[in-house]
Specification:
The complex is a heterodimer of chains A (about 350) and B (about 170). Chain A is an alpha+beta fold. In chain A, about 45% of the residues lie in helices and about 15% in strands. In chain A, a hairpin with a 3-residue loop joins strand 6 and strand 7. In chain A, helix 2 packs across helix 10, helix 7 crosses helix 8 and helix 8 packs antiparallel against helix 9. In chain B, strand 1 and strand 2 form a beta hairpin. The longest helix of chain B has 25 residues. In chain B, about 25% of the residues are buried. Classes of the chains: A alpha+beta (about 350), B mainly alpha (about 170). Chains A and B meet through helix 3, strand 6 and strand 7 of A and helix 6 and helix 7 of B.
Chain lengths: ~350, ~170
């Protein structure tokens, strides 16, 4: 697989299926692992980083679950390619910096991604569509077990898996759920919900993880604590919280439907109208309008556009995706033109 | 008001520290304040936060030993860790154990791993896991009682009884 093959492909997690996919976009689990006897990436020499890369890529080849996948060596990618992978949630923004001796493995379904030499030697990620952390855990646990047969992980009985940053020590696990909460935002209840989440030692982030702002009604919620609870306990805790948020969002949607249906219909259809006819549009505006259209589709107010099409539009209207589609470097102004054109084409064809 | 630390200069910096849910008010002169936390003047990143947390663990008599303590495997010193907020290698966790154990507890509320093990160590850690599990349950019970979550407390109490019963049989 080449990086250009990804552009016409829909990632597994974007399909808009799975439990509660009206509120939950995706569920993700990542595990941080390091090799015994090697310094963590930030403290390792070039030769050591090369050796780590070698050991890990050899192990990967022996794991059946990772068979249909491609290893992208970051030093060989240009800046658009790297951003493209970030936009597809296949790697972190941090991984695009100082790219020597770094790589990312991506499987054909694009639900598995393995970053090599990011903050830790290994960051294994599994993404599922909808609210599905346990299924994600089962798959990633299997991959982790298989890799452990060929790799000697840094591990202590009392501290668990050892990571570069002590905030990840223990299980090395972070479970995140991406939520779409337009009704809680519109009814101004979101501040209260986010404050409660923070008190429970969970973190809320934006679409692109660490360091990004929540935008367009999208919120990524994940556990902060990785030590002292088992993996399944951590997942149960996240699940319990997410179930409550889903319930609150669903209730807020019902109340809006009952009390101000016309206003809601107006906002949703105006958003769709702008997307279908705009000639210049920024990515921020696109995300906000698509968020309303997605709500319209979930509520049955928008009939001819399905969740999958909307999910795809979120991704392909991002800067690096537009430039890959056009196969040329575009300025910000040029992108706003091309973005509007692409959206018109996709939505008016339906 | 004079500085709480040196008692000589007028206190111009007023600091509220919260350690272990205990609130402390400190009134410091500028020099002592700067001395207390150089990080306060910088942008507050994760490494600063971690370094700050690590600082609280400082047993004053061992201060020097801690800062110069060096990992024999990767060469990282504890001072390096305090600066960058990252450890150097897995062995650092053994070398700096006495400082990291309380730090981990502060971050995660526990420093006993009870999750999965890499397959190879499974047999060795099985007993350990059971013990940690019991201890953890007792902690949770105390917490539940403090929060007056009595249903949860009753469930935990039964679980602890059951585990202790099993242990006696063994």
């Amino acid at each position: 697989m080449q990086i250009n093959d990804l552009i016409n492909h829909t990632s597994e997690w974007l399909k808009g299926t799975g439990p509660h996919s009206d509120v939950v976009i995706s569920s993700r689990i990542r595990l941080a692992r390091n090799l015994n006897k090697f310094p963590f990436p930030h403290w390792a020499s070039k030769a050591q980083l090369n050796a780590i890369m070698e050991k890990i890529s050899q192990a990967i080849e022996k794991v059946p679950l990772l068979k249909n996948s491609t290893l992208f060596v970051l030093a060989n990618l240009d800046s658009i390619d790297k951003q493209f992978l970030v936009e597809r949630h296949l790697m972190s923004i941090e991984h695009t910096q100082k790219t020597e001796q770094k790589a990312v493995l991506v499987n054909d379904e694009e639900n598995i991604a393995v970053m090599i030499n990011e903050e830790d030697h290994l960051r294994i990620q599994l993404m599922q569509s909808g609210f599905n952390l346990f299924e994600a855990w089962e798959i990633i646990n299997g991959i982790d077990d298989a890799l452990a047969k060929f790799l000697d992980y840094a591990y202590l009985a009392d501290f668990g898996y050892l990571t570069a940053c002590p905030t990840n020590t223990g299980t090395g696990m972070r479970g995140s759920v991406m939520l779409h909460l337009p009704a809680l935002v519109m009814s101004r209840q979101i501040e209260r919900v986010l404050a409660a989440i923070a008190k429970l030692s969970f973190t809320t982030r934006g679409l692109y993880g660490e360091g990004t702002q929540a935008s367009g009604n999208f919120f990524q919620i994940s556990n902060q604590v990785s030590l002292g609870h088992s993996e399944t306990e951590i997942i149960e805790n996240i699940n319990g919280l997410i179930r409550q948020i889903i319930e609150q969002e669903t209730q807020a949607r019902e109340i809006m439907l009952a009390k101000s249906k016309e206003i809601l219909e107006d906002r949703i259809n105006r958003s769709l109208g702008i997307l279908k006819s705009a000639r210049i549009i920024t990515s921020q505006e696109t995300i906000e309008l698509l968020s309303m259209v997605r709500l319209g589709s979930d509520l049955g107010m928008v009939k001819d556009i399905d969740r999958r099409t909307i999910n795809e539009l979120f991704i392909i209207t991002q800067p690096a995706h537009l430039q890959k589609l056009e196969n040329v470097k575009l300025s910000s102004d040029q992108r706003d033109l091309k973005r509007a054109e692409l959206i018109r084409k996709k939505l008016n064809l339906l | 008001m004079l500085c709480d630390v040196c008692g000589k200069n007028p206190a111009t910096v007023h600091l509220t520290e919260i350690i272990d849910e205990q609130m402390n008010e400190l009134h410091l002169c500028e020099d002592c304040a700067r001395h207390k936390s150089a990080a306060m003047e910088q942008q507050f990143g994760l490494s600063d936060l971690l370094a700050g947390m690590a600082d609280f663990e400082k047993p004053s008599s061992k201060e020097e030993e801690m800062v110069t303590m060096k990992c024999h495997s990767c060469g990282l010193t504890y001072a390096d860790f305090k600066k960058i907020g990252r450890l150097g290698c897995g062995e650092c966790y053994n070398v700096f154990r006495r400082y990291l154990a309380p730090l981990l507890k502060r971050i995660h509320g526990s420093n006993q791993h009870i999750g999965k093990n890499p397959a190879k160590t499974k047999v060795v850690t099985k007993l350990y896991k059971k013990k940690a599990g019991l201890e953890e349950l007792k902690n949770q019970l105390q917490k539940a009682i403090r929060q007056e979550a009595f249903e949860e407390a009753a469930r935990l109490r039964d679980q602890i009884k059951e585990m202790e019963g099993k242990k006696e049989k063994e």
